[in-house]
Write the structure tokens for this entry.
Amino acid sequence: MKMIDMRFNLGAIKNLVGKRFIKYKCDAFQFTNSVTGTVGVYIDNLVYELRNEQESVDYFGVTDDYSVFKIINSTDNNIQSFFLDTEQINTPIEEIISKIVIVNENQKLYKNGIQIYDVWVTRGIIFVLESGREISFQKDIVPFSEEIYINKGYNLIDIIEDNNDFCDDWNEQEGYLGKCSREIIEIK
């Protein structure tokens, strides 16, 4: 069985609770509440990049370009659009982070009753602010899409999409069975 783990590293994230979420920076929305590839997250005097970029990975037996969602330490100069001549906008937040919720997804693939893949991905991250308001950043459920969906509001865990398509697609192929489950991690 092949195990692949593409979840966020929780080490740096744990230290963000109690700090001020200053702003996020990204391309302007065009047709949906999503941006391609990158969002800068500014917390206290630190800058993080939420990056959803295609990388060559083993995608259930085929080496292909799959979008991998990451959170990495960055600088303001490194937060740039994936597109030429595209000005990014700042969205001010100016609130203390009271909790962070990480939504991980486990995708298992079986062939003729034997598990052949166990894959973990981070589907989304939700910043819960002192006011109770939330901001979420979600990797698109289309495996090859570099889109990051951004939502603001309340109970955003309810709108982070399930990836039932993964199971449906594999279950339509003879001898294969796909299973998906979620892991919700709350960091307080």
Residues 63 and 161 are 25 Å apart (CA to CA). The mean pLDDT is 95. The chain has two helices and eleven strands. The radius of gyration is 17 Å.
